[in-house]
Design a protein that fits this description.
Domain CCHC-type: 263-277
Mean pLDDT: 74
Pfam families: zf-CCHC
Number of helices: 6
Structural class: alpha+beta
Strand content: 15-25%
Shape: globular
Oligomer: single chain
Low-confidence stretches: 14-18, 23-32, 34-41, 73-82
Region (Disordered): 1-89
Protein name: CCHC-type domain-containing protein
Largest sheet: 5 strands, antiparallel
Biased composition (Low complexity): 62-71
Radius of gyration: 51 Å
Strand order of the largest sheet: 8-9-7-11-10
Order of helices and strands: HHEHEEHEEEEHEEEEH
Distance between the termini: 206 Å
Length: 300
């Protein structure tokens, strides 16, 4: 028996010049596509990419709409002065209260600007809201707060303009005002306060003298025999119609009335004795009776 020795060829080491071995007819056909430099996206990847793109677009739209909706700063926001002006308060529907006003008697020789400058020197001009002359020859100023009014009146009860002292007081005072009549000028206020303390009444204001009201040049300073004071509303029932005091060995009867006009004839409020309707009616009645008597005498 003879053996034939076949020489095995060397294995192909992937030489670029080496020819590829022919494929066997029984070998399966390869379906692998040649690879390219760009990756072809799969269906799942395309859906995720579209969803991410849509989400980013929605976020950009929401962000831009929020930026448009943000309020723009007003010109007052750039104001270096943080204090709220009266014009801004009016724009917000805020109006001052009557407790924010002070009032004092107006002097003919004093101009309005002098009042304003004097108060502005004390409270600063920015705290003054409005000013005006009002009835009964008074001057009114509205300030920025009630606390400022209270502090002003406590620390500065008077202001001096052209060597004249002018009293400052509230425009609105919740306390009740009373007039003390028939008070001789030699009677000190301490004696009156002692008599009021006997009735358990403590005034909320100092006792001040009232002028006689003489409208002649050089005579306006003359005082009357009347004084005024304020008491709390709860002390009204305690206030007597008069008090009897003894000073310097003499008894004095002081009459107390409120600030309403009271007739001394009929004791009614709202008119004075010279215009009392009861006196007028009685005078008319007497005139008619006199006419009738005269006519009867003529016929006789």
């Amino acid at each position: 028996m003879s053996y034939t020795h076949h020489r095995t060829p060397p294995p192909n080491r992937g030489s670029p010049t080496s020819p590829k071995p022919p494929s066997s007819p029984n070998s399966p056909i390869s379906t692998k596509q040649p690879s390219t430099s760009s990756k072809i996206p799969q269906p799942n990847e395309n859906a995720a990419h579209k969803s991410k793109t849509s989400t980013n677009a929605m976020n950009n739209i929401t962000s831009s709409s929020q930026q448009k909706q943000q309020p723009q700063p007003t010109p007052s926001a750039f104001n270096n002065n943080p204090t709220t002006t009266f014009a801004e308060k009016l724009g917000n529907g805020l109006f001052p209260k009557k407790e924010q006003a002070i009032v004092f008697d107006a002097v003919d020789e004093v101009s309005q600007i002098e009042y304003i400058k004097k108060i502005g020197d004390i409270v600063k001009p920015i705290n003054i809201i409005s000013v005006s002359k009002i009835s009964k020859k008074r001057f009114c100023i509205f300030l920025n707060s009630k606390e400022l009014v209270t502090e002003l009146i406590l620390k500065h009860k008077t202001i001096e303009i052209q060597n004249k002292l002018i009293n400052i007081r509230h425009l609105y005072n919740p306390d009740k005002r009373f007039i003390l009549a028939n008070v001789y000028n030699n009677i000190p206020n301490s004696t009156i306060l002692e008599a009021l303390r006997y009735h358990d009444i403590i005034p909320t204001s100092p006792i001040t003298c009232l002028r006689a009201g003489i409208q002649l040049e050089g005579y306006s300073h003359i005082l009357s025999f009347r004084r005024q004071l304020f008491i709390k509303a709860e002390d009204l029932p305690k206030m007597p119609s008069s008090i009897l005091i003894n000073y310097d060995g003499t008894n004095h009867r002081i009459f107390i009335t409120d600030d309403q006009v009271t007739c001394f004839n009929c004791k009614m409020t709202g008119h004075v004795a010279s215009k009392c309707p009861h006196i007028i009616e009685s005078q008319n009645y007497n005139i008619e009776n006199n006419i009738e008597d005269i006519s009867e005498q003529c016929w006789e």
